[in-house]
Design goal:
With 545 residues, the protein is of the alpha+beta class. The protein has helices at 26-42, 126-138, 195-206, 244-262, 285-288, 293-313, 329-353, 359-370, 372-380, 423-426, 433-454, 462-490, 498-523, 529-541, and strands at 13-15, 54-67, 70-81, 86-96, 108-112, 115-121, 147-151, 163-165, 173-177, 181-185, 188-189, 215-222, 228-236, 325-326, 390-391, 403-406, 409-412. α11 packs antiparallel against α12 (462-490). The chain is globular and about 80 Å long.
C-alpha cells in the first residue's frame, strides 16, 4: 500500500466483507497491524512506548461488544519492541459512516462491501459509551462469555443519562457518566488484575477508608482459563477543585511572593533536625511570618488521610492478597536486584548526559558519580533481619498529583502503581514508608518547581531561595511525620520503632530520588538538579566518609 492511508484525502482501503465479519478477514488484520496502527498509536497520549523502537504489532485477542444492534469490537494489541520487550494495549474499535460524528478523529478511512466509512476508536462515540455503562448496570457477568461486566454493591445508578470524555487524555481514558460516575478504561493492559481495580474494590468493600473514590463496577476480559485482563474500572466521581499538586504549587507561589516582599534574614532560618517530628503549634514564628499556619494544617490533613489509607490496607487478616507480611530474604533479594539494576541504569544516564548540565547541577552530578560506590553499598546494605515492621499493599506511585482536593480535605486516587514496574512488582507488599518517601519527594518537587517557574519574578538570589526551600521542606516533613506516626501507631499498624522508620525513610527517599533522575535526564535536564540535590542531601545527612 504505497498511498497515504492516514491523510485526509480520498483514499480508502477496500474490503469485500461486512463490518460484522471484518476481523475474520486476514488481509485486514495484517494491514491493520503492519500499516495502520503504528502511525495511529504513536500519536495517542495513552501510548507509553514512544521512547522505544517499535518492532511489530500483533492482535492477540479480539471480541465483539454488542447490544441492541450496535456492534463494536475490542482488540488487545501486543506491541513488540526492538529492545526485546512487549507491551499490551486495549483498543475498542467501531465502523462509522457519518463523518459528522467523528470530525478528524479516525484511525483510517475504509470501504466495506462498497460502503464508505471510517475505522475509529469506539470511545469517541456516545453509543459505545452508553452500551458499556448499561452493561455494567446489568451486572450479568456470564452473559457476554469472555467479557464480564460487574456491578459493585454500592452502585446507586439507575440508568444512563449522559457521558463525556474527561479532559485531556492521559495514560488511560476516563469517561464521566451522569456527572456522578467515572469509568477509567485502561489502555495499557496486563494479563492480571489491575492493582487500581483490586485496591479500589478492597477499600470500598471493607469500608474502612472513605477518602478514595468508591468502587462501583468493572469490565474484565477472561484472557485464558487462569488469567484475566482488567479493561475498565467504574468509580464514584469525587467533586474536587483539582489535584494537590495544583493546590500546593499555588500556595507555594503565594508564599514565595510574600518572601520576596519581606526579604527576611535567610541566615536566621534553620532547617529542622533530620526527620524530626514537629507539632503544628511548634512551628517557629519566623516561618509563620511568611508561611501561613493553614499551609501546615493542610499538610497534616494529607498525612492523616495517608495514615488512614495505610491502616485500612494493613488491617486485613484473611485475604492473602492484602494480609501484612514480615520482611524476609525473598523480598530483600527482589528489592536489591531491582534497585541495583535501576541505579546502574541511572548512572549510565548521568555519564551519557552530563554534558547537558551546568552550574550546581553539574557539581551535584559529579558528586553522585564520585560516590556511586557508597550509594551502591547503601542499596545493598538493606538487612531484613533488623526490621521488625510489616510490609503491606501500598499505593506505590504516591505523589501530590494522585490526591484530589475537596475544600481542605483530600481524596487519594490511582492505585495502579509505579509506571516502570511490571504488574507483579506493583503487587509486592512494601513498607508503607515507601509511600511517605514518594509524597515527601513530591513536596520537594513542588517547592523547587515553584522556584524555577517564578524565579525571574522573585527578588531573592537563587542561594537564598534554595536555603528557604530546605527550611520549608524540612518543616513540611516534620509536620507530616508527627501526624502520620501518631495516627498509625494509635491504630497499631506496625511500621516499626523510630530508628527503623528513619532507616526505611532514608532508604526509600534515596530510591525515589534515583528513580526520578532517569525521568529528568530524559525529559527535562534542567530539572535534574532536584533529584540530584535530594540524593546529595541524603548522602550528607548519612555522614558517609
Amino acid at each position: 500500500m504505497s498511498q497515504d492511508i492516514h491523510g485526509e484525502g480520498s483514499f480508502l482501503i477496500h474490503y469485500d466483507v461486512e463490518w460484522k465479519n471484518l476481523l475474520e478477514e486476514e488481509r485486514f488484520r495484517k494491514e491493520l497491524c503492519e500499516n495502520i496502527l503504528e502511525h495511529y498509536i504513536l500519536n495517542q497520549r495513552w501510548y507509553g512506548g514512544k521512547a522505544s523502537a517499535l518492532k511489530y504489532i500483533e492482535i492477540i485477542d479480539d471480541f465483539p461488544i454488542e447490544r441492541e444492534g450496535d456492534l463494536f469490537y475490542g482488540i488487545v494489541l501486543e506491541v513488540n519492541y526492538k529492545e526485546a520487550f512487549v507491551q499490551n494495549y486495549f483498543l475498542p474499535i467501531a465502523f462509522v459512516t457519518d463523518a459528522d460524528l467523528i470530525g478528524d478523529k479516525y484511525i483510517v478511512r475504509i470501504k466495506l462491501n462498497g460502503v464508505d466509512g471510517y475505522l475509529v476508536d469506539a470511545l469517541i462515540l456516545e453509543s459505545f459509551r452508553k452500551q458499556i455503562f448499561e452493561k455494567i448496570l446489568e451486572g450479568d457477568k456470564f452473559k457476554y462469555k469472555e467479557v464480564a461486566y460487574r456491578r459493585g454493591r454500592t452502585n446507586d445508578a439507575k440508568s444512563y443519562e449522559s457521558s463525556r470524555l474527561m479532559g485531556v487524555e492521559q495514560s488511560n481514558t476516563s469517561i464521566i457518566y451522569n456527572d456522578k460516575y467515572i469509568l477509567k478504561i485502561f489502555r495499557r493492559v496486563y494479563v492480571d488484575e489491575n492493582p487500581d481495580y483490586e485496591i479500589s474494590k478492597y477499600l470500598t468493600m471493607k469500608g474502612t477508608f472513605i477518602n478514595t473514590p468508591k468502587y462501583l463496577g468493572s469490565i474484565t476480559l477472561r484472557f485464558s482459563n487462569k488469567n484475566v485482563i482488567t479493561l475498565g474500572l467504574l468509580q464514584a466521581l469525587v467533586p474536587n477543585q483539582g489535584d494537590a499538586w495544583e493546590f500546593f504549587t499555588h500556595e507555594l507561589k503565594l508564599i514565595f511572593e510574600e518572601l520576596s516582599r519581606q526579604k527576611p534574614n535567610v541566615d536566621s532560618l534553620q532547617v529542622t533536625k533530620y526527620l524530626e517530628q514537629i507539632p503544628i503549634d511548634q512551628i517557629p514564628s519566623e516561618i509563620l511570618a511568611w508561611c501561613p499556619q493553614s499551609f501546615f494544617t493542610d499538610v497534616a490533613q494529607i498525612a492523616k488521610r495517608t495514615a488512614q489509607m495505610h491502616i485500612a490496607l494493613g488491617s486485613e487478616r484473611s485475604n492473602t492478597a492484602f494480609t501484612p507480611q514480615a520482611f524476609g530474604n525473598d523480598y530483600t533479594v527482589w528489592l536489591k536486584n531491582r534497585l541495583i539494576y535501576q541505579f546502574e541504569n541511572r548512572i549510565n544516564l548521568v555519564e551519557n548526559n552530563i554534558y547537558k548540565l551546568s552550574g550546581l547541577a553539574l557539581e551535584l552530578a559529579e558528586e553522585l558519580l564520585s560516590k556511586k560506590k557508597i550509594i551502591r553499598k547503601q542499596l545493598l546494605d538493606f538487612d531484613e533481619d533488623k526490621l521488625k515492621s510489616e510490609r503491606i499493599r501500598i499505593h506505590g506511585d504516591y505523589h501530590l498529583g494522585q490526591i484530589l482536593v475537596q475544600g481542605h480535605d483530600f481524596y487519594i486516587i490511582d492505585f495502579e502503581g509505579e509506571p516502570e514496574s511490571t504488574i507483579r512488582d506493583r503487587k509486592v507488599k512494601q513498607p508503607p514508608i515507601k509511600d511517605i518517601a514518594g509524597i515527601f519527594r513530591s513536596f520537594n518537587y513542588a517547592i523547587y518547581a515553584t522556584i524555577f517557574n517564578n524565579e525571574n519574578e522573585l527578588d531573592l538570589s537563587q542561594d537564598a531561595l534554595f536555603k528557604i526551600a530546605d527550611v520549608l521542606y524540612s518543616h513540611i516533613v516534620g509536620v507530616f511525620l508527627k501526624t502520620y506516626i501518631t495516627e498509625v501507631q494509635t491504630a497499631n499498624l506496625n511500621i516499626g520503632y523510630i530508628k527503623e522508620i528513619e532507616f526505611l525513610l532514608q532508604y526509600c527517599l534515596l530510591e525515589k530520588a534515583v528513580y526520578e533522575l532517569g525521568y529528568e535526564l530524559n525529559a527535562r535536564p534542567t530539572w535534574a538538579i532536584i533529584p540530584l540535590k535530594g540524593i546529595s542531601n541524603i548522602l550528607n545527612q548519612q555522614n558517609y566518609e
